[in-house]
Amino acid sequence: MNDKTIRIGLFGLGTVGQGIFSVIRRARNAHAEIRRICVRNLDKPRGIEVDPALLTTRPEDILADPEIDLIVELIDDAEASYAIVTEALRRGIPVVSGNKAMIARHLPELIELQRKHGTALLYDASSCGSIPVIRNLEEYYDNDLLLEVKGILNGSTNYILSRVFDHGENYDDALARAQQLGFAESDPSRDIEGLDSLFKLIIITVHALGVYVKPEDIFTYGIANIHDSDIRYAREKRVKIKLVAQVVKVSEEQFTMFVMPEFVEKNRYIYSVDDEYNGVVIRGECYDRQFMFGKGAGSLPTASSILSDVMARRYGYRYEYRKMSYAGLPHYTTDITLRVYIRYSTTEVTRLLPLRAIYEVYTSTESSYVIADICLADLMKYRDLLTAPDIFMCNIPMFFKDDD
Ligand code: HSE
Predict the structure, then answer these.
(1) In Å, how far are 19, 20, 299, 400 from 30, measured between CA atoms?
(2) Who is most buried in 44, 152, 181, 265, counting CB within 10 A?
(3) How far, in Å, from the CA of 67 to the mean position of ligand 1?
(4) What predicted TM-score, i.e. pTM, was given to this entire model?
(5) Ligand 1 mean position, distance from CA 263 (Å)
(6) Has 200 been annotated as catalytic?
(7) Atom of ligand 1 nearest to the CA of 191
(8) 393 near 227, Cβ under 8 Å?
């Protein structure tokens, strides 16, 4: 490691951009300096004091500056982020990014660009805020033993569910507070509908199993339709409802992945993961389970992860994506059976859905529910029906059920 100061060109000065600005100032051993900041609007009031001479609205002022060693890209707009990151990589400039939507959509191309131009893109901050999940999956879990990576990957929905479930708060108030606290996306439907968790799961899966799956091929169901009756049901059963993303090896040759609310029993690690915290359980053949826990959203926790990537660049760290070239990579499948709770009122769920086995049905004029098995591929097929406003669905976990 050398002590040469690393000169950063920063794109974006929003919640996380401001966080990295103040974290770099206080990190004594970072030997990093922000040399230029590209923003959309020079006059926008910000919560921090920044020398106006650092600010520019022209990306080229950073991209073409030969004195800049590293680009930190923290802009909200996924298309603008894609344009900047791909251009920087083409010019051989290493990039640290936190834009999970952009990375999840374009990862194969971004990997190719890194290879072709001999440079690096690091993005630990894109998944689970302050938890170093990507680098650990990439380096430590570089073996054939991984069976499952599962967890709470979205701080905002976990915050909302905790406030509603444990503190009896109103859903809309909890969402507004998650926005105020800087946890939620600028379009919070991304959090609520599970897309943010999905993007993180896609990135995690590349580093866990070496396989990339496109967002549209993965079943994603959020918490938008949760209702008091679901919370009452969960309380009666002594479980919590959490939004859970998971990638699971279902055989030597196959794995599956999906994002869904889940009934979480008290003996599970993620049961106690509340508020904006994230929790990731990594399961493997020889070590049973390991658990990573930490703040998954917010300015400073996410900035701490960006700083780790910045410091990693000081010794030339890059992801090697070794697993992607391993022989016999598992294939993605949606041909698996899940057990689900589906609450409904007007939609005739039991007639319209191809349920494989029904274990329990409760009917009343206000709200009914069914507990049944259904194929994941059928959940994909009937996605529109399942998002009807009178329906809410929860996964009842069956994988590794008796291992805890
Ligand atoms: N909106 C995201 C969340 C921010 O709530 O987890 C961190 O990725």
Answers:
(1) 15, 12, 18, 42
(2) 152
(3) 32
(4) 0.97
(5) 21
(6) yes
(7) 1
(8) no
For residue 185, give the ligand 1 atom closest to its CA. Answer: 1
* Start-to-end C-alpha separation, the chain: 43
The catalytic residue among 4, 100, 116, 200 is 200
* CA of 278 relative to ligand 1 center, distance in Å: 10
E strands, 125-269, are 146-152, 219-220, 239-249, 254-265
The token duo for 323 is 């697993």
Q: What is the pLDDT along the chain (404 residues), one digit of tens a residue?
A: 466 899 999 999 999 999 999 999 888 888 899 999 999 999 888 888 999 999 999 999 999 999 999 999 999 999 999 999 999 999 999 999 999 999 999 999 999 999 999 999 999 999 999 999 999 999 999 888 999 999 999 999 999 999 999 999 999 999 999 999 999 999 999 999 999 999 999 999 999 999 999 999 999 999 999 999 999 999 999 999 999 999 999 999 999 999 999 999 999 999 999 999 999 999 999 989 999 999 999 999 999 999 999 999 999 999 999 999 999 999 999 999 999 999 999 999 999 999 999 999 999 988 999 999 999 999 999 999 999 999 999 999 988 776 65
